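Input sequence (192 aa), recorded before submission:
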Amino acid sequence: MDLPSWRDVPEPDAVNVMLDPGLAFGTGTHPTTALCLEWLESLDLAGKTVIDFGCGSGILAIAAIKLGAAKVIGIDIDPQALIASKDNAQRNGVADQLELFLPQDQPEGLIADVVVANILAGPLRDLSGIIKGLVKPGGELAMSGVLDTQAEDVANYYRDEMSIDLSLNLTSGVVSRAKNNHSRLNRGVLGG
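Predicted structure, token format:
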């Protein structure tokens, strides 16, 4: 459950993320963010590395840490997003488990077991080569921020290396999963 930092925790036994988005995008109430949170919760993240590509407020990165990920990296083009992510990670007591980078500063050869990109269709298309390159063989990729009418087009940018399943449709987006068909890349995709 994601909560504004000024509220009390209503469910102490749940995975709670205290959040103040500041100037960054991502409060957890947007349907596409909720889909990504649900998807992350469905995975076994124990011992895995997760990249939150377009981390905004850091909600998905922080949730991944709280769901057991061993290492989490947030990447965003907006320095304000990195500040908000760092502040929210501190607020949640997980700042030492979150690495944050501008794209030009991220480590070379960076790959992860799980990558989540809750950004818009345009960047998902334009950055498809970069995003696919972040997922290690056998890993999974979640893409969100895609309208139902855009899902097929975005999926086409990933089909050269992944088989796509556009399986769950919502009025505000589409959830899809994919596995890569190449030996170098074996990934899953969620878009919505």
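Checked by second reader. Residues 14 and 147 are 30 Å apart (CA to CA).
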